[in-house]
Amino acid sequence: MKLSVLQQSYLNRRSNSFRSSGPLDSSSDSAIKSPAAIFWLVLHGLCCLISLVLGFRFSRLVFFFLFSTSSTNFYTSPFRSTAELAKTLDVRSVLSTNPVSNIELPLLNKTAMNSRVVVGRHGIRIRPWPHPNPIEVMKAHRIIERVQKEQRFQFGVKDPRRVIVVTPTYVRTFQALHLTGVMHSLMLVPYDLVWIVVEAGGVSNETASLIAKSGVKTIHVGFNQRMPNSWDERSKLESKMRLRALRIVREKKLDGIVMFADDSNMHSMELFDEIQNVKWFGAVSVGILVNAANTDETADQKKDEEENARMPVQGPACNASNMLAGWHTFNTLPFAGKSAVYIDDRATVLPRKLEWSGFVLNSRLLWKDGGDKPEWIRDIDMLDGDIDSPLGLVKDPSVVEPLGSCGRQVLLWWLRVEARADSKFPPRWIIDPPLEITIPSKRTPWPDAPPEFPANEKPVIGIQEPIVKHTTKTRTSRSKHRSKRKHETRTDTQVSTRHSEQN
Amino acid sequence: MGKCFWAFLFIAFGFAPSITAEHNPRTERISGSAGDVLEDDPVGRLKVYVYELPSKYNKKILQKDPRCLSHMFAAEIFMHRFLLSSAVRTLNPEEADWFYTPIYATCDLTPTGLPLPFKSPRMVRSAIQLISSSWPYWNRTEGADHFFVVPHDFGACFHYQEEKAIERGILPILQRATLVQTFGQRNHVCLKEGSITIPPYAPPQKMQARQIPPETPRSIFVYFRGLFYDVNNDPEGGYYARGARAAVWENFKNNLLFDISTEHPTTYYEDMQRAIFCLCPLGWAPWSPRLVEAVVFGCIPVIIADDIVLPFADAIPWEEIGVFVAEEDVPKLDTILTSIPPEVILRKQRLLANPSMKRAMLFPQPALPGDAFHQILNGLARKLPHQKSIYLKPGKKILNWTAGPVGDLKPW
């Protein structure tokens, strides 16, 4: 009984206080004269004051529930939602700014008996530490991997073959840079992989330590000659090294698709998907990134730029019926006489006519008695010289399969960038023992530096002073410049604030 | 010799099932409660008579506002068009099993496109007065063999606010009719026993046009785009979505596995195809078109709405396809989702990849076999034959025509 009166007056109160000047309901201003209503008005005011003081919404609802019995069916007590005002109005004023928090208002939770979902205001459940759990993140990543594996199985290449990657390399400054790039690409390949690394100058710890981090199956072989210093000689030696690797494929009877990944090239992941389509011998388009460095003749340069506006591409050329019709090769004429000869020349490095990396072949072509080997393949052991590109292995170049939608997709890029021949680098890129000469920087807190003694300070200051003077010069010049623009009465403060800011 | 023979037979029988079994690893057949119910053909199993109402109930309303054809309540309009040209339509009402009244009750839109339900009760009431006076079939059963499509927020309660809707309850004159509605929640006033729950309308051409190649790897773990707080209508929080969406935001806004935000990206459909789980939490009402989008794009729906009744629940085993999370378990959503075994996830994806599943959620124009229109007819056919008790003695009245708020009784 009393409860219903309380409810009733509460409802009146609430709808009164949140009504705006709309033509919505009528009158209830006249109803405020009853003592219960006055009591609630006073209580409301009291709660407002308490809320202002405390800073969160101290709702009368708490009182309501303190004094109510538990047998009320909360489901039927209609709390007027503010959505009623949605059509006509603006946001009603909220007493405080704490709408979303861990207020576990003991309101309207499910009445357990008939598991009804209740309308009304619910608390927003936030767990105590709403941040990701690393173990669950790892589980989620495993789920994602499994789903993607399934997707590849369903939509990707059927029966993927193992990929045999041949990389010639040698120890030099940029080896770590190039080889790490290739290594990371190979680590991402979703197929079985064998990486044959042939190293000029013999097997070294540098290379071995680099490729050990890859996690793919590697065959590391040394080649007894040292890498010469000219680009021509280098590419000849690389061809020999690649043939050495092909002999390994033959000896071990490795089964799969052989591709040539030079250590300074860049490969896209689509390349590895595309080469799975090769039957016997395929060719892809290689983008040639030629560093046209140090050309001072502006007129010639402009002409060159117009002609070579697109990136030159080496690879198969197809006719209208998507059959192999010829080859795109790199136009070396503009660079005739200006190309680099030695490895550390700063001139442009030119590629060969057709790079090895643009070709892939089925490893069965290299086996001694491959059985169903086509007859247009030459035996490696029967080669009477060195070959410049894998086309030397085929008697009839028209059998080559163009890949990558007939050469239209560029799937890898060729680049040759090397450091000077006399450049040094720390072995295995580890600085050991630590460097001895250290200069403390003025701004960085240097934890091991001793407290500044005047005796020690002199030489240090001696080095730093010119630097300090220089910066203060620039500072004052800047502030003077600025203060000139500002109003005169404020110059002094401007200058001092500038100093303090910059300090 | 004999042993060899038996061994051979044994091996042959062992292999035979595996050879003859259809090995289609990409999809899996959904077995509904009564066999492959999704592929049933309703033609021949029921007959529907479509009342000819004056165009002020349907065509004129649509002419006034053609936006009704593309919003999520458009099912009522397309159902009418489908029935007009369907094989189940009969022009002879005496042989009809079901009677359909074409009223576009949800087509009164605000300038921003939200439907106002204030006139709908009067409209329905006036239509029913018309059909009960012009044809004898309403009075014969007081509507028990009639069905109405009421795709609004809370179905035939005709209000967008849940409390008001509950107060009004289902329109009294529709108490005996079968309601085809999008709203479904157990133990709720606005879901009548025997109603057919349908998916909200989602534009099929738009979705088909934005398909990406299926080999694109799914790299988003959980995806959601939408509001978490409805600042205009619920500035304090706690009312909208019963606090569940706000809980999702507060608990997982820092979690990189959850790609959730309130933005409206242009790549929404493409992103869904790159996600493994798509959240479908309740909003002001428990249903949402996200479920349809998730099913069409192969993203496992994570349904956060207590006691919700999903579309065609008697034909589609939603428990096997989606993940249900109770609203109180939202803070543990990441634990729940990561602890699902990968085989279960792959199975759900295979079930979702089934084309009949995707078709059943859509309302294509023109209708295709197995689509949502046919599922509605299947649902109606499953309710046949009508019980004899629905046929009332002449002159007997069960419905109270004057029940309900006074405003509803005004003529339309």
TrEMBL record, chain A:
Membrane topology reported for the UniProt record: Single-pass type II membrane protein
GO cellular component terms, semicolon-separated: Golgi membrane
Ranges of Basic residues composition bias in the record: 470-488
Main location class: Golgi
Pfam families cross-referenced by the UniProt entry: Glyco_transf_43 (PF03360)
Family the UniProt entry places it in: Belongs to the glycosyltransferase 43 family.
Described purpose of this protein according to its UniProt entry: Involved in the synthesis of glucuronoxylan hemicellulose in secondary cell walls.
PANTHER family: BETA-1,4-XYLOSYLTRANSFERASE IRX14H-RELATED, GALACTOSYLGALACTOSYLXYLOSYLPROTEIN 3-BETA-GLUCURONOSYLTRANSFERASE BETA-1,3-GLUCURONYLTRANSFERASE
Name of this protein: Glycosyltransferases
Name of the gene: LOC111317089
Automatic annotation (TrEMBL), chain B:
Membrane-topology annotation of the record: Single-pass type II membrane protein
Major localization listed first in the record, in broad terms: Golgi
GO biological process, one term: glucuronoxylan biosynthetic process
The keyword Transmembrane is assigned to this record: yes
InterPro entries: Exostosin, Exostosin_GT47
Signal peptide start and end residues: 1-21
Listed name of the protein: Probable beta-1,4-xylosyltransferase IRX10
Native source organism of the sequence: Durio zibethinus
Recorded name of the encoding gene: LOC111308475
